[in-house]
Amino acid sequence: FAPEDPEVFRRRALTTLTAARDRTTLLTTCVDEPDLTAQHSPLMSPLVWDLAHIGNQEEQWLWRTVGGQEAIRPEIDSIYDAFEHPRAERPKLPLLPPEEARAYAADIRARVLDVLERTAFDGSRLTEAGFAFGMIAQHEQQHDETMLITHQLRRGPRALTAPDPEPAPLFTGPAEVLVPGGPFTMGTSAEPWALDNERPAHTRDVPAFHIDTTPVTNAAYQAFIDDGGYADERWWTPEGWAHIRAHGITAPLFWRRDGRQWLRRRFGVTEVVPPDEPVLHVCWYEADAYARWAGRRLPTEAEWEKAARFDPATGGSMRYPWGDDDPRPEHANLGQRHLRPAPAGSYPAGESPLGVRQLIGDVWEWTASDFTPYPGFRAFPYKEYSEVFFGPEYKVLRGGSFAVDPVACRGTFRNWDYPIRRQIFSGFRTARSAEDV
Ligand code: AVJ
Ligand code: FE
């Protein structure tokens, strides 16, 4: 991908936008119309809101801003402004009905492909206009993940299918990996489609630490449950303890005890919780409590990124744990190829030079860190993408899940959410400082 070459760039932008739209189409045609307009959870928008919001953001950034064209449907901007209307209120809005939402998104896309053909992409235009195309492709893919979360919350028979990941032999490597202390480069100034919060590249000194080789599995998490972890205040922060008590939380979301085993509902099918899969649908408080019970802690965001990008051979930072190549299927479980994480220890080709596995894909990993700007941060292209979220209310998640498309995933990519959230595809791994025994 050479962003200096306008033709290469045009082809890349076209493929990426088309892949996002194919996924959006799948997610919004596999259920009936009433399912598109229903609110499946107060935490989520109706699917038809996401669909028209995707089109509206594309109209605003690629048609109006990059294309310099007159607004097509300015009157709907406010309905699809995520800041004006919280998710719980969105079903009450005068939303475009499914057919109209589809036609609107398709009309904008056709116009935007003309803009893509006409734009010169030379000099600084390439960086600014070029960035906008990447941002909008990532935006659509992020809403596709959001819609997949809605699908998981939805009651009713299965609407989506995908092959399961390859079974993996039980992982027998070391449980943790030592990451040496010293400075490393965090964030990026080079990645053309990196979002504002990933920038700029800067040096961080990270003392030596140990990090789990794989994400924490369901079997390991069940040991915490069986040990009475949810009933023992010692493992929880005061906020976490108050939260699980108030909401009667005793297991990950979608889990249900059946005699001596745990069942879980996934995309309309009930199954026995698979022991070797990374645990999914836990909130930050649960991840933090598990780590304390295990005598460990969550990694900081800087530790996570160092584990994922540091190359001890060169002292530099790579784009991904496996190097600088774009993700291929043998590297990581990304892009909704599967509807679940792969067993812990999968994807040896995707491991870091130090041997840490599955940092990218499978499950979003909670970190200990609040969402804060890097030194030298500059909001781009709008404050509402990241800046308004900086502060102690949000915790950072890293690495992406099986539901994240490669275009919206890299070693520097940052996600964030409230510490109580667990409808997201969230799991975690644990760490400890090297001087601890
Ligand atoms: C980065 C996933 C927290 O979904 O709220 C979508 C991404 N920003 N539309 C979100 C986003 C604007 C954002 N997260
Ligand atoms: Fe959005």
TrEMBL record:
Family matches, as InterPro entries: CTDL_fold, DinB-like, DinB/YfiT-like, EgtB, EgtB_Actinobacteria, Sulfatase_Mod_Factor_Kinase, SUMF_dom, SUMF_sf
Residues given in the record as Fe cation binding sites: 53, 139, 143
Residues the record lists as binding gamma-L-glutamyl-L-cysteine: 87-90, 417, 421
Domain DinB-like, first and last residues per copy: 17-147
Gene3D superfamilies per the UniProt record, alphabetical: dinb family like domain, paralog of FGE (formylglycine-generating enzyme)
Pathway assigned to this chain's UniProt record: Amino-acid biosynthesis; ergothioneine biosynthesis
Catalytic activities: gamma-L-glutamyl-L-cysteine + hercynine + O2 = gamma-L-glutamyl-hercynylcysteine S-oxide + H2O
Record carries keyword DNA repair: no
Enzyme category, top tier: oxidoreductase
SUPFAM superfamilies named in the record: C-type lectin-like (SSF56436), DinB/YfiT-like putative metalloenzymes (SSF109854)
Sulfatase-modifying factor enzyme-like domain boundaries: 173-432
Required co-factors: Fe(2+)
Function: Catalyzes the oxidative sulfurization of hercynine (N-alpha,N-alpha,N-alpha-trimethyl-L-histidine) into hercynyl-gamma-L-glutamyl-L-cysteine sulfoxide, a step in the biosynthesis pathway of ergothioneine.
Protein name, as recorded: Hercynine oxygenase
Lineage of the species this protein comes from: Bacteria, Bacillati, Actinomycetota, Actinomycetes, Kitasatosporales
